[in-house]
Amino acid sequence: MSEPITLTYAVPGDDFTRAGEASSDVKKKLKAIGLDPEVIRKVAIAMYEGEINMVIHAGGGEIKVILSSSSVRMLLSDHGPGIPDISLAMQEGYSTAQDEVRNLGFGAGMGLPNMKKYSDRMEITTEIGKGTTVEMEVYIKKVHEVS
Amino acid sequence: MTVADIKRILNAAVLTGGEFMDREVHTACGSDMMSDVLAFVKDQSVLLTGLVNPQVIRTAEMMDMVCVVFVRGKQPDKTVLQLAHDRQIAVMTTGYRMFTACGLLFQNGLGGGCEHHE
After folding, report:
1. Which of A39, A126, B26, B32 has a CA positioned 20 to 30 A from the CA of residue A146?
2. Superfamily, domain B3-111
3. Which of A24, A107, A111 sits opposite B58 (nearest CB)?
């Protein structure tokens, strides 16, 4: 792949049933170009958790996926309330989600930890009242690096 | 075991994906919290859940799961079934409760996909 490919998605914040459509589309596209299934799964899960977070915490936002020969980079930006304490938010089981979100199967405090777990690099930039940007990257191993 | 074995053991009704009965299933995960499911990646898993919304199918899709079983006789709506159909995921419903459904599959040799130690 000579030039990086960029995919951009608007994530609607008012429709929980549609949450995950962007991640699903990315997964399909990565499959179509024949990327390593393990890389695809890591990208899909990390992005899906991020997409769900954008819907339940921030009223939606925008996702950019940049695919190069060495990695898949995901930039998730929202204009939500921001994260007051990132280290607390990173703890498994810690959640500020309301009961209605839990009733939908999320808000168990596993979103950010899962995003970190499945990405090879993750950085969070957040400002209270302005929004949050999460950058995640999954590296694509070259064949000679695997063997 | 296969998806057909799961159908038989749980006396389940197939709601979509009847053509996938021959697929092999190696592990199972039972949970109503999708983030907990997403925390444990195993190949060719079945998901048992009492949660009925499209995110159950999305979760199964992201994890390459082959089958979803709704417990306590829960019936998903058309949106959920259409999504599962599009993503080629078999969907069943069983009258058993979560604990019993998981126990029956475990008893019949299906390991958990969610434990740290088997």
Report:
1. B26
2. HprK N-terminal domain-like (3.40.1390.20)
3. A24
